[in-house]
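Q: What would this chain look like folded?
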Amino acid sequence: MKFTQVLHKHHLGRAIRMMWQTGRTRPVPVTNAEEILVSQGFKVEDALEVIKPPKPFPRVDVPSIEHVDPDWKERNCLIYKEHHLLHGGTSQALQLTKTLKIDDEIPSRVKDLIADIPEHIDDIVQRNVYTSTIYDAQQVKLPKLKDPNRPSWVFPRQYGITSTRKMHNITKKFLQLCESLCGLNIAQNRSMVHDGILSMCIDKELDVINFSLKMDLIMTSLMPLTPIVDARANSELEIPDIHPLHCTVGIVQTNSYKNEDIYPIVTNSVMKNIHTIFINNNPEEVKNITELPVFEDQIHARSLIESFTAAGTYARQRFGLDVKELPEPVVVQWDKKFLVVSTNIKTV
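A: My prediction, written as structure tokens:
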């Protein structure tokens, strides 16, 4: 056995822990030093007040918000954007825009234009769908999956094609197919606008409503569309009543907005007439404020609002901002539905 020098070392962690165990219960002795010093005429002050004197904070006058935000206005405004939804669905949208819903099928005038389609067109359409939704090379993170019955369960992260890219791919391929079938005479009179911004303000009773939307795809044409049906032929129809709800229920209210009309095409452009708008429904952006599930009726109402905004901004640019009665109806076509506007957009 080898003898070594005794170092008398202590474990630092154990020593500190022992000091805390013995020192935390040590009572603080009470001395009469302060009373003795005061009795002898000495001034006693707190050590913290000498070492850390109170720091004075100067008063800063913060200007009001109307002087900071250039778009701030005294009058409140109800703003509707592309990711908003109406709680009342189609009935609320019809009441808000004063629109009549004639039927749920394609007008007979459009059905008569459908000719016999060759058999190879079905194969082309099927190939376009596969190419747009399956064989596309995009691989990005898809939204996280959630199970309402198991909210804490974490699903494996999936990669694939986003819904927006699928919509853009399939829309462009179908448009290309339609142009190849219609011929050059029709295709050369069409133009496409991507991510066009549309905005307009209207007065609804005592409220100001601002529609500020971004359209994914807008097809414009050389000549405006003619009315699909006669609006005066359905004068017996009535706008649905949503009482006791108001037509503006659920729309966001704000004081910061721009009271201006925005149309994505300049006035002197040859292709300035809106022909068809293509609306994308991205489930990650289009949600209810209440976090309730989205219904199909709300998607139809959103499409109706966007088509109404497109028709309103187009009518104001075409006929002017001061027009009271439109000289002729404004027609906007959108996927799955048709919209005919022939009303006073100033007092909608």
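The first strand starts at residue 72 and ends at 81.
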